[in-house]
Write a structure and sequence with these properties.
Length: 299
């Protein structure tokens, strides 16, 4: 079968060298595969190496060993169908750096209690919906203006705008699918150019938070449902989608997508995801799809 090995590093440090690619090529040949052409997607940052083989898992393990401790991400996937027509992205700790309930709690002066629950929920140690309702309950009576104050803290991950702009330029539909709240996702949708956003809704009454989340709660199952709905409505299959996230509530979505990427994922997510990025920024998702640096839009 025809595969492509993609090796990616942090664009800021440009750690990828020709010597490392030569080592990767030798490792491919040593795995009883036949290495093909080298294609530099971005000098010093990302490179493709095609090969013919039957045991990609063994090949990937040998390449990883050959690269040693170099801060590089790598993935092996079939060449066919590599560029995706649908993007589903988690927001918190994926498209933005923050966990917004933690930010809300800090503004409200109850950060430590809320952050502990967030960490356990994202690691898969607590039920997502129960943990969400418990944390929101702690915000009962807080002024709605607190939401605006927390929103000002949001900062985009490097490569977020480029990821969305480039995939849209390539004809993909881009959706922000978050277990957070619409008051935050609407801003990030506009900032990055997503086609739509889906998230939970906070109940507000009399200018204050009631401590309740309106039904239905968007969690792990709803993210998978969004993938199925969006692909079906566009005459696509989940295999035609790229999905990215970091937390346990992203796992079903990542597992069903053709390119499901754990982005600096929690330990359980990194262990379960077929693809992962631990060193590169979000443009790494573009290199995984074979985009060259001169195709990447600034956003």
């Amino acid at each position: 079968m025809h595969y492509v090995l993609t090796v990616i590093g942090d664009p800021g440090s440009r750690p990828l060298t020709a010597a490392l690619i030569d080592a990767a090529r030798r490792a491919v040949d040593n795995s009883h595969s036949s290495a093909g052409e080298v294609d530099w997607l971005a000098e010093g940052v990302a490179c493709d190496l095609t090969f013919e083989g039957t045991e990609p898992t063994i090949t990937q393990a040998l390449v990883r060993e050959a690269l040693g401790e170099a801060p590089l991400d790598l993935a092996i996937q079939p060449v066919e169908g590599r560029r995706k027509k649908l993007l589903l992205a988690d927001m918190e700790s994926t498209i933005i750096r923050q966990e917004m309930l933690d930010e809300l709690a800090e503004v409200a002066g109850i950060h430590e209690e809320v952050a502990e629950i967030t960490a356990l929920a994202m690691a898969g140690e607590l039920d997502f919906e129960a943990a969400l309702r418990e944390r929101v309950g702690l915000l009962t009576g807080m002024p709605a203006a607190t939401l605006d104050a927390a929103a000002e803290r949001m900062t985009l991950m490097p490569g977020a705008k480029a990821l969305v702009a480039t995939m849209r330029a390539g004809g993909a539909y881009c959706a922000l699918v978050s277990g957070g709240f619409t008051c935050f996702t609407a801003r990030i949708r506009a900032a990055c150019g997503f086609d739509e956003d889906r998230a939970n809704r906070l109940e507000i009454a009399g200018g204050k938070m009631t401590g309740k989340v309106l039904d239905p709660v968007l969690g792990r199952a709803a993210k998978l449902q969004a993938l199925v709905e969006l692909s079906t409505s566009r005459g696509l299959l989940p295999a035609d989608a790229c999905a990215v996230g970091d937390g346990a509530n992203d796992l079903d979505m990542l597992g069903a997508a053709g390119l499901g990427v754990a982005y600096y994922g929690k330990p359980k997510v990194r262990a379960a995801a077929h693809y992962r990025i631990d060193h590169a920024d979000l443009t790494g998702l573009l290199y995984l799809q074979g985009y060259h640096a001169d195709e990447i839009q600034e956003g």
